[in-house]
Amino acid sequence: MTDRAVRNLANLKKSASTARVLNLLRVWDEHGGTEGWKAAPMFQHPALNRALILKHRLRRDEVDRFRVRRHVATKIILPIDGGDLRIGGRYVFVDQIGYDRTMEETFGIGPSHPDRHVLALMDELPGLDPFLLREQLRRNGLAPDPCYFNLTEADLSRMTDFVAEEIRPLVDLSLGPDADLAAENPVARLTAKIMSFTPGEDMSALGATLQLEPQEYEEGVFCWKGFLYYKWALQSVIGDIGGVLDGVRRARPYGRTEPDQYIAIERAREAVDRRIILTCEAAADMLRVYDEAFVAMTQNGEPTQFRDFLRDAPLLFTRLGERLGAVQHIVSFWRFRTAAGKPRLTAEELLDLLADFEISLSGRERADVVTLAA
Q1: In sequence order, which ranges of 73-185 are alpha helices (DSSP H)?
Q2: In this model, does residue 203 exceed pLDDT 60?
Q3: N or C end of the chain: smaller count of CB under 10 Å?
Q4: 16 compared with 5, residue with greater pLDDT
């Protein structure tokens, strides 16, 4: 465990993306007194269960900490003072050189400890959004309490207007398009229910609309929130990807470049360009399955189709989360590496960066034919 302070943790809490940060300190602060948090923790070790875990873009002086070349790592941050994140914290990267020894010395847990398995599963993922993460853990026989799978405060704030517009057809269906929305503000009320849903909250009206049994409320609304999150995330990344693609196409290496490097760079450019476009198209195709089910409920009066779609939705979370996580990684890392003041990329660095992008997208460009139970 390095003693170097992690700065700006308070800013991280305010602005962090759900896909990048899992704030277990916030979960403990909000749910630490509940039976669910105690009975089904994310991690068994109490310090890990109050840590901040994030996907971190490695700086040039951090790349050598790993035996295998990588650009993004899973970082475990232990705040020095959970009540004042401005003080900073200490950190360790999952699978860095000396990882086994560090985990033994810091937490007293060896390679066979269950918490190490959870961290390894997180490290496999391109991002940490709650829908992708929960499905990854579920597939491996793990079921932490639902309180661990919420959106960050920053994304909740950014998503509110988008979600309100998305669910407006359901409100119109329930109340009629001529209802006095200003008087009761049912759109805002339903938006708040979907976005801040916690176990035990009264969702009977929504459950009746979706024809969900009481025990299905939590799962149904969680899945609905998941698809609203992915629609919003795709819309956001589509707005950014054009500039990144243009930058990738125009990038010229700094310094001496060998002829074979020019050829390799052009080939990598074309591959990344093609895979980014096809990955976004595949994600959009999968989200259209959601749109069709929602239209069937709000326009065709068939709520059972949307209910059944929500029941099967977790099958899509892995593929959607991986695709969007890969593209989000490319957008954020390209901006980080080519920002003003950063050293220009040499031919070797550009090739390495494009190779990382290509690998992160590998196998995700093929559109899926998705069949859900009716």
Answers
A1: 99-107, 114-124, 130-139, 153-175, 181-184
A2: no
A3: C
A4: 16
